[in-house]
Amino acid sequence: DIIRLNDPALFRQQCYVDGAWHAADNARALDVTDPSTGKVIGTVPEMAAAETRRAIAAADAALPSWRALPAKERSAIVHRWYELMLEHQEDLAVLMTREQGKPLAESRGEIAYAASFLQWFAEEAKRIYGDTIPGHQADKRIVVIKEPIGVCAAITPWNFPSAMITRKAGPALAAGCTMVLKPATATPFSALALAELAERAGVPRGVFNVVTGSASGIGGEMTSNPIVRKVTFTGSTEIGKVLLRQCAETVKKTSMELGGNAPFIVFDDADLDAAVEGAIASKYRNAGQTCVCANRLLVQESVYDEFARKLAARVSQLKVGDGREVGVTLGPLIDRKAVAKAQEHVDDAVAKGARVILGGKPHARGPCFYEPTILLDATPDMKIAREETFGPVAALFRFRDDTEAIAMANDTEFGLASYFYGRDISRVWRVAEGLEYGIVGVNTGLISTEVAPFGGVKESGLGREGSHYGIDDYLELKYICMSV
Ligand code: ADP
Description:
The protein is an alpha/beta fold and about 475 residues long. It has helices at about 50-70, 70-85, 90-100, 105-125, 165-175, 190-200, 215-225, 235-250, 270-285, 305-315, 335-350, 385, 400-410, 425-435; strands at about 15, 20, 30-35, 40-45, 130-135, 140-150, 150-155, 180, 210, 230-235, 255, 260-265, 295-300, 355-360, 375-380, 395-400, 415-420, 440, 460, 475-484. The chain has a 7-stranded mixed sheet with strand order 14-15-16-13-12-17-18, sandwiched between helices. It has a 6-stranded mixed sheet with strand order 9-8-7-10-11-19, with helices on both faces. Helix 2 (about 70-85) packs antiparallel against helix 5 (about 165-175). It is globular and about 70 Å long. Bound molecules: adenosine-5'-diphosphate. Adenosine-5'-diphosphate binds near residues 155, 156, 182 and 239. Adenosine-5'-diphosphate (ADP) binds next to helix 7 and helix 8.
């Protein structure tokens, strides 16, 4: 079941370390499967600590000359990387759909989105301005400069196989840092294709390295090696906490984009049709497998039934299938475990009084597919209210007034994305300010863009990605005090 690309060299089955392609020391390889078909589409090296140590050493060796380049030169290289991603958008999208499952249209969109971070940070590279501060004594002059943190280690998830990489590698390389990346085991080919394009763009050897294989072996080396000055992670809160504990030993800087439990609130003055469209985009995109997916739909009681009816009508139009098929809008979940989790949440909700009005079981299309599902009468004691479902299951909760909606929305340890639909201007401000979240979408279900700061509060993480703030996560301040 081979992958056909216009440029076959983008399909790499080896790791990229110090500007060369490598197998694992033990010569072992891991299978990568297409979740739509269950078939193996290729293999990647099963690397561990020793190979990671060499990649970190390569990144360390490459650091002095990379950080010393004038910003304009680093910018040009990162910008070329961006252009190459767009030139190869179709091949990159095909690779992504095969290993991840999302519909081809969504993969194309992700490639453009991923590339946009390279473009944005290529531009920002030239604007890493410092500061001068009036001295505290007559003879003192104070200057603040910004410097790259150094060697960065990145660990990324499978739900956005390209974008979660570029929004770390883009600012890191733009700032003058070097990087070792461990992509998710389920989706390594998108990462390796990016490495191939980085090389073609002129990224010098050692500046960007990709190792695949054992999460604990690679992660353990990344978090314990003193050369690594920064660990940047996107994934679950559970693993994020493990990495934070491990990083404490050498006091590494960290960026953590962790889980969410996004509320999607529909007030009685909302445009219900717009709210339905927003809910579809936020809930069912990537088959519900994004950390900003609406996880709890909170609907005011006076519009509850009407919203549910409209949502069901729209969700039943979603077309489930292999992401390569024309017209498919809902692909498979990443693996069978993900299907089991969706089912567990549905069963738990039903046992506690929820009603299934659509779906509610695995989809006949194959073992990784789940039916687009809607549950009514969801309550806070259900698993679906507490944990990220990461599947195409919408649970509708009922609320009476704004105070109750905000309290319900904030009743979680997570604080990444939130959404609400309503039109009254003072309500809009009150609710936006009342939500304890890093991101608030008002009358929109789509909030991701490279120009805005993406990140969460509470247990959803540390740091921000994208926007002019995003490069700060890869910079240190140095204060120079001069006596004249
Ligand atoms: P997801 O639900 O996205 O798979 P995870 O947190 O399990 O979330 O995984 C995100 C990334 O973290 C993946 O690349 C995974 O391989 C990696 N990972 C998982 N466990 C560890 C670990 N103990 N140390 C380092 N990385 C890990």
